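Translate structure to sequence.
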């Protein structure tokens, strides 16, 4: 059968969808774009914001209009089962805690989820090592959709990493809903730093990247490991707010001083590392003074990029009941101010790369004779050569910046 897998949301969703595609392809099915009139569409949804709810519904409708039988999974369908089931074309909702069971449903045979492997067409291997979340941030519905923290045992993680090397992958991205809590549910408990050390020792993978991690979960052991050349010099550490009163309302587990201290500690230990963050603007109770505290903190910290989100009320969360929700115009204005700061910081960080030689993982070959790829420090690069296979690593000397991307020239042996 022709099957299309449509995905929204986080890297965990991307990892799960990639495994579904790989397993279905190995079972004899053809993975196609939704425009190619598939027999079946699997829609992997997201509910992190009201916008992602809307996009999830649109994706389901698009799948239905293609004439496909529609199987829906993911966080949005988990929290809105009745309304999703009533949508035209939806044949079944697949439980979010057992998402890979869709493979068995569509292949008419039992498939061990641990044997699933992504399609070789991907440039990077997103390796899910953890799912769920034990925290209760007041704005977030994901713990309700994903459940408590659950970790993949180290041996299984290593086996997947070894498979990735055998399949030709040069980079794995360790993903999880709450990555820093990896191993707390295992017996005996395992720390993320211990897993990372095991992967370094037992595999030959060239690059390892961490997807997103909370600031309080970067301990000294993990920080020491991050100096290893095989680990990407890139961390994504959510801030959400730079004001202590708002952080408390958000039920975050740190204050602005603790966040600032850790970011500076990381940058001192690993000079030039790319540190990204997430920020929510217009949280209930956020006045001009609280926003300015956030702005000032981000301005003075060595952050290289930020993802900015206007507050989006999620049903049945504590924040949805809080008073003093700023008007949409205020949220938009604050988001625009941070977007301008983000642009300046990102440009400054990119300018610091000019003249350096960076390792670039090729993601695509362009029709104009160039290739595009990503560096270890999470920057997009365009280079004038297109005969490298997707997923290969090349050394590139950075010459300048063009349209938000680095421009460089490959360095070949003996050059």
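Result:
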């Amino acid at each position: 059968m022709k099957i299309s897998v449509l995905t929204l949301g986080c890297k965990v969703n991307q990892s799960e969808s990639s495994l579904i595609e790989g397993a279905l392809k190995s079972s004899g099915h053809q993975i196609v774009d939704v425009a190619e009139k598939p027999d079946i569409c699997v829609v992997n949804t997201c509910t992190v914001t009201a916008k992602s709810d809307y996009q999830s519904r649109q994706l389901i409708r698009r799948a239905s209009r293609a004439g496909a039988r529609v199987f829906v999974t993911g966080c949005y369908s988990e929290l809105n089962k009745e309304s999703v089931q009533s949508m035209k074309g939806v044949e079944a909702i697949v439980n979010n805690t057992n998402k890979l069971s869709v493979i068995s449903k569509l292949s008419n045979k039992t498939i061990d989820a641990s044997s699933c492997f992504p399609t070789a067409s991907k440039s990077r291997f997103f390796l899910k090592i953890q799912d769920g979340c034990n925290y209760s941030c007041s704005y977030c519905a994901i713990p309700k959709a994903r459940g408590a923290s659950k970790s993949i045992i180290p041996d299984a993680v290593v086996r997947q990493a070894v498979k990735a090397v055998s399949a030709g992958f040069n980079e794995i991205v360790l993903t999880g809903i709450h990555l820093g809590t990896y191993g707390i549910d295992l017996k005996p408990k395992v720390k993320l730093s211990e897993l990372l050390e095991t992967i370094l020792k037992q595999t030959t993978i060239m690059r390892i990247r961490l997807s997103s991690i909370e600031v309080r979960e970067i301990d000294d052991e993990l920080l020491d490991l991050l100096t290893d050349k095989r680990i990407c010099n890139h961390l994504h550490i959510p801030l959400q707010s730079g004001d202590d009163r708002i952080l408390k309302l958000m039920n975050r587990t740190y204050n602005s001083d603790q966040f600032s201290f850790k970011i500076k500690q990381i940058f001192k230990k690993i000079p030039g590392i790319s540190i990204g963050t997430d920020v929510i603007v217009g949280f209930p109770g956020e006045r001009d003074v609280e926003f300015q505290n956030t702005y000032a903190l981000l301005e003075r910290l060595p952050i290289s990029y930020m993802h900015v989100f206007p507050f989006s009320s999620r049903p049945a969360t504590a924040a949805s009941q809080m008073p003093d929700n700023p008007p949409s115009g205020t949220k938009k204005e604050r988001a625009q101010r941070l977007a301008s700061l983000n642009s300046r910081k990102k440009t400054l960080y990119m300018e610091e790369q000019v003249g350096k030689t960076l390792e670039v993982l090729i993601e695509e070959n362009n029709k104009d004779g160039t290739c595009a790829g990503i560096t270890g420090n999470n920057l997009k690069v365009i280079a004038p050569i297109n005969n490298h296979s997707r997923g290969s690593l090349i050394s590139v000397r950075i010459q300048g910046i063009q349209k938000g991307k680095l421009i460089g020239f490959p360095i070949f042996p003996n050059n």
